[in-house]
Structures
1.
Amino acid sequence: MTGTMQITVNPPLQTAKSSQRPSRELAVSRRALLSSRTNHAAKSFSCLLDEPYMASGGSIHAVRQSSLAFVRPNDSNALDGDSRPRLTALRSPHGGGQTGSPNSRPRSELSAPASASTRLSPNTLLMRAWRSLIELRINDAFVAVAQFEDAIARADALVAARSREFAEVIRALLFVLKSRDHATVRAALAVLESRHRSGGNSPALTAALRIGYWKVRDFDRYYAVPRLSHAVPAHRGTHGLATIIGPTFEAIVEAEQLRLAVATRLARSAHERAVSRFGKRSPVTARAAGVLAELLYEEGHCAGLDALVMESLAAIRTSGDRESALRGYRLLARLAARRGDTEFSFLVLKEAEVLSAARDWPEMMAESLMLRAQLLLQEGRTRDAALCVERIETLARDLPSDDVLQATLALARAQLLVATGEARRAATIFRELQAVSSGKRNNYWALQLSVRLANALLACGDQAEGRAMLVQALQVGARAGVYQTFVDAGAHVAELLLFLHHATPQDSRLPPELRPYIESILAERAQHRVRTLPARASRVTESLSPRENSVLRSMSCGLSNKRIAQELQIAPETVKSHVKGIFIKLAVQTRAHAVSTAGALGLL
């Protein structure tokens, strides 16, 4: 493979194999949903806390007592829920359906008696389901639909056919919003398309169709669905889905196409509407806040993002919205690590793991473990990071056809290989990820893969290809406004950025318009390192000798020991001795890490 980066093809990983697995989003009968069951989630929680690597992320007591903790020691109901309610299978226009096995019930169901539906009319339950859907209270909406069906099954009077049809449409909308399984989303889209062909043209329906087509990566149909913003005043009941939920998903699509400015405007507008209509602590507000916060983080605007996510956290935990939970916890962990508070970052990730276990969200569990491993590697705790990767491998073995989970495992393995000196194997993994994801339209993911691959290539000595790939990624990132992806890049990318920044235009052969962009990236990396190593800077500055400073500057230019010896007119063995002294004083193990740390401490 050459240094060319394919920015037009890489999506979230999905393959044809995903349609072969039984969908974990599909439902069972109303009786199974409304029946009682024993609480086995608490057992999973206790097993999670017994893991050996728990010590790497803070004590059990800290997790239980933190202000973030959603699970309390005596709160059994909090552990008794699964955010993926099981309902009657979606039916295709030909009458086919899919079924699944019961797992657990949502918390909202446990807090309401099973006989609640007998005290409410079917139409009241239907309206309750619709209101819950508009507010993204997914669990409550599923339960209300199930109670509606239970009520009409036992009702003496006939229920209007339109009410039954409306219930089926609500269920399809819920699956479109919630499911990540392509077969499930396509079945739901069949219901919505049938409704659309029969004359349904509400803004909510068109927004749901666009969301569904995006999830199955059918962009031809996605862009073919017309926007009906002019019809919103005539459809007050669909206003929330059309003007808040829909634009929030559109912001995600625009971000995938590296149109970050447009994506941020859409997300900000959706968030403002959500706050105005539903308040700051509503699930629909939380979804918009999470998307907006991640976009602002990527653009380098980090001030106030903690508060933006934290005020939505309670709604995230109880809504059953896996995507919002993943975005919220992931961003909180990154922000904490960015300001040097790794203890809080570990705590956030541990609570994300606990929530994932309680809700049965293996993809979120895997990503939390991958982020934990990344933090551990930054601290030099390779063995603890390997334990996290082993946990992800266990999850992946249980769900071999889950493409998202398999991709997370591949990324976790690759970052461990780079840290343990096997960067060539890591580069092979990144190439395989690019091959699997080709043919899809997710340019943002393509850019992230290219930066990771460039770091691995530089680490294993493929300087020419690694440099070419990084420069092309910088050109794409500068045009799109991507920032944090390069700030968070590996140490070998940072070393090359330092060389490009300090080298003369003739030596770097770098487009001049990229210099200010690289300088801003390096400045942010330096601030991050200073925040994490505030007390060490003065000690290191005083302890490095003038000769060690000279060797360090030559190392930052990518020179070998032999070249440094020739330049400084000293023996190669003397250079080796100075390099060893630099490693000891900077508390690093590699040349790339030494250059990165020295740059952060202002020594270069």
2.
Amino acid sequence: MQPANKDVKGRDRLRDRVDTLLASVILVLFLFTLAWGPVALGGRRPGCFLVIQGATIAMLGVWVARIWVQRRFRLLWPPMCWPVLGFLLYAIFRCRAVEVEYAGRQQLVQALVYGAIFFLAVNNLNRRHSSTAVSLTLIALGTLLSLFAVFQLATHYQKVWGVSRMDQYVERGSGTFLNPNHLAGFLGLTLPLALGFTVMSRFSATIKVVLGYCAVVMLAGLVVSVSRGGIMASVIALLTFCIVLLSQRDFWKSAVIILCVLTALGVLAVSQFDSLQKRFDKMVQHDKVGDERPLYWDAAWQLFDHHQLWGIGPGHFDVEFPSVRPWEVQARPTFTHNDYLNTLCDWGCAGLGIILVACGTLYWGAFQVWWNLRRPAHEIGSSFSDRTAFVVGAAIGLMALMLHCFVEFNMQIPGLAVAAITIMALLAAQWRFATERFWANPGWIGKIILTAILAAIMVYLSIQGLRKGTETYWQARADAEAASPERCLASATKAAEAEPMDWEADRLLADYLWKLSANDEPDSLERLKQALTWYTKAKQLNPFDAYAPLGCGMCLDRLDKTEEATEYFEVALRNDPHNCYVNLEIGRHCVELGELDAAKLWMEQGAERRAATEEADAETEKLRRNMADPLFVAEAANRRASKAQKLERNKTDPILLGPK
């Protein structure tokens, strides 16, 4: 019997070693993902997010291996897992019941990636050192980004990995984010972690001094970001951190020191940093501020009124915003600059309600764990604890990020979202130290079902990643080969074919064909017809888009089918009534119709708008000169006379009435 027992023990030891190795692999992949997102421009670009998606697929594969390698596999299921699972199920249903399939599918991919990261962290980063490793990684990253932000401000350095930041950020630091507000959000999340481990951990005095310096550097990074919302959210969070320290008699001295340091740094920053003064002065001068966020919020409320329970659809604020666009906003906002309102608009009361339940459950659990950990030193031998440092720092860091989300779209930035979700998962997993009742043994059937679910997610994410990766590759090739029309056209065509439901890829291809058709070459007419075909497809894929029907109308005008073009211009006007470019093209169309008075209305009134472009001004001036030419006016009158019968039927046509 002894040899048999030795063999069993040997196999058990081998399985334990393999399991430990697999757990380490997941931890390394997690740390890489946490670092990659912020460093790679926040992970917003498709290629950057694909790396996060690929790392998630790899971690899921390693988790499947762990499920079958572990001798006694148990699933950790703290209370927060229920609302997270509920939101994932809701996302699967809601993302498929949208009008623009591509927008919903991209949101579903993100929801699955973030959900997978949450459950991976809960069930694989549950060793004592895991939360510390994650925290130190984020602290080190926050320190480096802050140093780079200070350098950006001091030198007015405008590039991040070769990508130019917007001119308005020249006097602000953003680190490797393109937007300084997102750096402020990241630092608001990590700064309390640094202070928590400085004050409350079991680290040596030397390491605590280093962590203290990291906290000071991150405070400097927060200041040079000049983010009003980020700074105010962090100040509230740090005051809360001091209140927590004051509630524990072993740390009240540290709280007093931190308050003094923060007060001194705040006075120094306000008195010496002119950019910070100007930004906060503008915050209270509502009539003079060029901040467009209130306009986005008003538009989101208008869209929310259409579908209050379920929302207009995931990713659809960006899609449907043009229909409620105010004249003052000509750019594409993409998000509402308020994560809660963005969620309410896209996902409805149902989606936001699930998220709020998840956050409430998280903080209820964090409070329970912290209450159990806050015993005085004479009862437990030492008041210092890495677990207490993490729980307090993570809870308050998440609070700072959540406060900042009222005026920013932090959770739409993958680098920030992954960091926040990982911290949430580790905070929820702290229940494992307080009680055993949230551990579940799924048995063989449960392991098979869990493996099947994880395998299905891996396959789906892999297929979607391959499609998106192929499209992104060919789009990059098309941009790189702009000097060679034929190669650029071939690459753009392959990009559109790689993702047939992406209306923007189709419209970009149509735009390129339209530009090529302007050249006086033998194939110009064929290029024009191809552009019309791709514009028509883009219009079908996204019925809310204004540029695709506008392109159809422009193509028909050039094909001398002016009357057919009118209905497409009407669709563009209905989809985006306050778009200066749409108004400009409608004015040009009115010239083709011979309706010079209507053309003048479209161009002049459009040019008078606050956000009028140089192109609109130039076209308006060109029309004024042409209308002074009798020959031009006579030709327009002939065109109008040749269409008199149709124009009589369209007296109330919005195209002829001019802009509202």
3.
Amino acid sequence: MNDTLQTSSLAYEVHRFSTADWIVAGTALFIIFNGLSVCIGWWARIPILVQLYPDDAPTHFNTALSFVLLGIGELGIVLRRRGVVIAMAATVTCLVSAELAEYAFHMRLGIDTLFAVPFVGLDAAYPGRMSGNTIACLLLICGGQFCMSKPDRDAGAATTAAVVMKTLAGGIAFIALLGYVVELKNAYGWTDSVGMSIRSWVGFLLLIIARIAALWQRDIRDKPNLPNWFLPFLTIAVVTISIGLIWVFSSPVARPFMLDPRYSALAHRISATIILSVGTLIILGTISVLAARHKAMTARVGEQKLSSVQAQLESTLEASSVGTWTWDIASDRLIADEFTARMFSIAASAAAEGLPAAAYLQVVHEEDRTDVADALERAIQLCGAYDIEYRVRRSDGAFRWLQARGRVESDGAGHATYFHGAVIDITDRKLSELSLRDNNQQLKRSNRDLEDFAYIASHDLKTPLNGIKSAALWLEEDLHDLSDESRKVLGLMRSRISRMERLLDDLLTYSRVGRTETATSDTKLTDIFASIIEVLNPPAHIQVRVEGDLSVIATASAQLEQVLRNLINNAIKHHDKQNGEVVLSGKRVGDFVEFVVRDDGPGILPQFHDKIFQLFQTLKRRDEVEGSGMGLAIVKKLVEQQNGCITVHSQGNGTGAEFRFQWPTRPSTYDAEELAHA
């Protein structure tokens, strides 16, 4: 299972990117290629790659190199490679700090020309050196990358700090943009260098816009709460833009035509428009801050309520013996709640931090471990559901039965990412099932023993009974001078012997039900009915007929014929009127045929409906009726053997009786292995 996870880890790294990650990655790649083009321009002395137009400040080599490294650092953040981020940010920090030291100590350390010799901007005080605002932006961006590289558990405060620093850098770049628009060098060049180039302020703005867009996608778009970084970002952005607009447009040199008297009226109108715009921006910014603060407070209240609901849910799950878990498949980190940890004898703190799945699997009973591992592997491969019951060994040595259910979550490419599930303690239910299974086995053994006894007893009793019958016949034949009373006694003895024979035959029939395999064939029900009439040969005053069309079914015909014959024979035998009829009908109901045997005889009172299906039960005295009292008991057993049931409907008092039973259109089969383990 671990081999499969390791094989798919590379594909998982590629496909796990969110929309926010793609935004940052795309911007980072653009900045890297832009920086490389400037570096190539310096090495190949191509002016257009270094300076977009003659009046533009050139993008210095060290600045372009810093952008390449910053782009790689942004990719490192996306790919969660902290070492790459720190290495790139540290390299840029050292490079720009060296140039800052040149300004601070009025020295020439050769950093400006370390990688390329300037061929444009030679009229500047320090050819090839970054401007002060470019240095400030690079240091702020590097600080932001340091913060963004921290682990997820520190991401709250770290993200806020990173946004603050990158927003300040974006504000400086925006002021440079305004400086180029109004041709005010003080806005884009803070030192004696040539100033921040167009490529530089575009790169800084792209970096901050991409990061804010990514954070917006991740932290705001689909979440009700307002992240901690949003208020500082909004405040700094509004203040920076407002200060930049006021500074740039309040200077009379911002636009040379504003000094010309011919345009004074226009200049005043422009100034008024600018003041109104700035005021509006400040007001909107203030409203945004207040609205964001209100949303944050509302979200905090919502989070508190959600936490309360989650606590109640956890309490409910705990009371109902249910635990939950989540498995990060790529990192093999399974996080579980306290109940799950207790079931697997794992410390709750370790389970909350996350452990490999093998730590849980090793607690599973040795006989169940392979099945559990196979079920997990199958669910991961198919990105499907997981449902299995197994035993775990507790730390006290006792075993508990658990039912685990879960489902695999996949990415857009169909690769398994997360495995969410729950475990339920089913020990009590399982013990009840095992106890019930043992009781069923004991009951089956008892029934089998009783049937064996009935079979052996009825079979073995027939031998001495035949001897008694033969002796009675010999006596009657040999003794010619018997009195009438003696002959009456011998006749009564022969009658009792015949009844005993019928009883033993019926007992043998009853005990054989279910013992022998039933032959199955396509049976025409009309043929069965004809065979029954031929055997029973009903008297002329009783009409036996079929109602409706009886179809052909595949069934055990011998057993069905025995059931119908017993029911029809009972109806004929107990009929008490000069003329009567017995009607047989049947209709298809799903996989069964429902048979009805109806007569217009004396009927059966409701209080005797259950009694008639019991062994050795008759509604008349033994001497008044021929039979053993087992006919309906045999019928009931044969019907139930086919997973059917039989009922009687009658009110007695000469209203007749109606017997209904279901018989399958296909024979009942049993899984021998299932019965053996039942």
4.
Amino acid sequence: MIDVFRRSLESGQPYDVELRQRGADGVYRWFHVQGLPVRDADGRILRWCVLQTDIDQRKRSESALTRAFEEIAHSEAELRTIIDAIPQLIVALGADGRFLSANQAVLNYTGLTKEEVRTESFRDVFHPEDSERLRDVRALAISRKVPFEYERRVRRRDGQYRWFLIQYNPLLGQRGEVIRWYATGTDIDDRKRAEDVLRSNEQSLRLIIDGIPGFVSTANAAGEIELLSRQVLEYFGKTAEELKDWAVSDAHHPDDLPRVIEAYTRAIETGEPLDVETRNRRADGVYRWFHVRGRPQRDADGRIVRWYNLVTDIDDRKRAEQALRQSEHELRQIINSVPGMITVADSPGGQEYANKRFLDFTGRTLEEMSGLNGLKMIHPDEQEMVTNEWLRCSALGQPLELDHRLRRFDGAYRWVHVRVDPLLDDRGRIVRWYGLLTDIDDQRSAEEALRQSERHLKLVVETIPALVARTTTDGAPDYVNRRVVNFLGREAGQLGVGVVHPDDRDVFSQRWHHAVTTGEAWEQTFRVRRADGEYRWVYQRNEPLLDRDGRVVCWYSVGFDITDSKEMEEMLRSTRRKLSAAMQIATVAELSASIAHEINQPLASVVTNAHACQTWLSHDPPNLERAQATLDRIIRDGHSAAEVVRRIRALFKEAAPIKAPLDINQIVAEVLRVLSDELRDNNIIAETELEADLPMIEADQVQIQQTLINLVHNAIEAMSGVTDRAKSLVLSSRRLGEELLIQVRDRGVGIKDPALVFEPFFTTKESGMGMGLSICRSIIEAHGGRIWAAANQDAGTTFSFTLLLTSAALT
């Protein structure tokens, strides 16, 4: 028997043996002993489950059967009687496994007859699942001619299935052939149920262990790992065999491993519980903090037989503790950085804590400020007041709030605002006092300065030579300066629209209502009745004061007595009417000079060409061809002069220009031809920078041509006195968006103020009238364009003007 146990323990295979055991009464009985190993997830044996079944009665029956066969083998009838008397299921089968007969125990159990045993009905007593499962096994076993056994469920006559151990033994002939099979059935249902309960308990225990929110493990007395819960394997991502060598693996953080090994070794040697914190490496390489606790299990003699270990994840707690320490550090920094002095006192008022700002302010240590020593830092004039107020608030449990002077580290006293609040327990008793001291010395100085400034401002408002008032959001006066009271003879509460002249009241009320509704500033001139009953003209300006949300808080008004100004304006208007006639006479003279200026150019050309014609005709023979050309120019200049007169008249009558499609580059070329002699006589080099394929414009040809002639003529005159550089003139044209830009650039003496040259009668020439550029501006603006002048960077001036493109050109 001992050899069977030893082989099973060495091989890990189940054992099944029959033996006799002595009971408490000293009597030996036969037992069927079965040992079943219980393994972990890695196949290692955790424990052995043993089931012992009392088979003494069966053994006695088998002995009796054996003796009966030996004693009365000659009597088959007696043998049948004995077999039927045996309380065990016995069946005889043919060599092919077909059922032949059964003892009475089979008939009594199944409720079948002897005839039914020989039919297929006997197979129905076996559970269908077992028949399907064992069909091939039984057929194979019968073909091997050796004993075999298996377990299956057999239906009792009441319909209930019970587990039986079916054991087959062959009866062999002389030649070794199977003559018959004999099978016995032993009821093992109670044993099977016990095994199921055992497995269920084992599974429940495993589920409990696996469900524990921590890592569970067991170790033997030497500390060698025996069992690991599922969570351990999943966390580390290692097998149980790999984790047994945890001391040389990467399961623990390298910085923690020596400390853990030391604690584990000490616990094994001393038997004291294991308690250590360490970082364990997760399967993904992340380390988390764990709390490892180990407790020993001892036998009756106090010897350690096993260690039970529980490892709890405390990473979140450790992080929370770290965060708490960080928060405490930050809180201390905040308290020390708060722009105020913080103190903590016990319930009687003895100081326990002060932040760095308070200690730096007083220049004392916390020990020097302990107890009631802080009262000595208060100014002597306020010590009694502070003490009395403290005693009153302490007795009533009320907050203390007051201002007093506190001595600084340099001996100077500064005003501080003190606020001390009590901390109460659940029963309303004072546990501690928390105080905040704020340095308000600068604030008090600023408040005093503000009060002085306010007094000065009020004095200014009262003495300012104006009527100053403040009204509410709905227009009701709530403040007026003394000048208003003296002027109207009424205080602020007595004022209203009644002081306004009856003819002005409606307009005044409408303007006020509009201002109150919209919040817009407004101004108005109206008449008010002075204290002596005389109505005086007043100019008033009203501005709203707005809050951060743009809502009107109040209205401020400033008024001035402008009666004298109104009378002066009336006298001025009278004077202006008298001067108007004189100005008209002067204007006629100026316009005449303008007309003479504009006509002078074409007439000068007529005279010049007439002289040239005389010269061509005086030749011998006369140069008629050149004379004819000169006469054509005389006729052209004559028409031009007439057209200038007509256009100027139309301009004075504000008549619209006569527009037609024009090519600006062609006009530029024509202007240069007209002034070619003048340019040549003044040694001026004329150049053009004309953009090709410019679109047409709608314009009055004569007016645009006259504008260009004026600009070029002015450029010629501007370069007349230049001797230190070449005289050059550049006319350019280009498109600029929806406009054409035309420029005349000279290298003359330049102008000081380009903005004034277009004003009427402004001139830089000794004999000029100042009307040429003014007329040019009128012409360009009448065409919807604009004209301006700008000084060049090197020398001279550039005159530019724009003309709108036609809609056809834009498309």
